Amino acid sequence: MSSNQKWLLFSFAMLALIGIYLGLKMTEAAFGLLEIEDPLRSVFPVANIVGLVVGLVIFIVLYKHPKASEFGMEVIKETKKVTWPGFIETRASTIVVLVMVTIMSVILGVFDFFWSSITNLIY
């Protein structure tokens, strides 16, 4: 099994885990909304069963669907081509962002003070 295939299976598994969580929470919410008591709460709650089934279905559908696998492999290949910025570039970009946010905050604060003063005079 290639490295790309492992990443693809890992991403499908993560999506299945998200599906398990959403299925579980939506089932619990439906039981709460409809005020239905879970008959299997003491053994194995129905919400857990629904969540596991949803997650399993998501994983199987993604794994068996050729377009999903092809798309995932393309994404993995393109992601491996990305060059990430180094420490110096990241620090420089962070400083630029912080300076620009500070400047824009001052400008917006001055405009806000100016317009609030004018509206207070009018009222």
Question: SSE layout and pairings?
Answer:
Layout: H1 3-34, H2 46-64, H3 66-80, H4 87-122
Helix pairs in contact: 1-2, 1-3
Would you mind describing this structure in some detail?
- This protein is 83% helix and 0% strand.
- The chain folds into 2 domains: 1-82, no CATH class; 84-123.
- Helix 1 packs antiparallel against helix 2 (46-64).
- With 123 residues, the chain is an all-alpha fold.
- It is built from 4 helices and no strands.
Total domain units = 2
Tally of helical runs: 4
Radius of gyration: 26 Å
Strand content: under 5%
Helix content percent band: over 70%
Average pLDDT confidence is 90
In terms of per-residue confidence, which ranges show pLDDT below 50 for 5 or more consecutive residues? none
Coarse shape: flat
* H/E series: HHHH
Number of strand elements:
0
Keywords:
123 residues, mainly alpha, 2 domains, 4 helices, 83% helix
Short account of what is shown:
This protein is mainly α and 123 residues long.
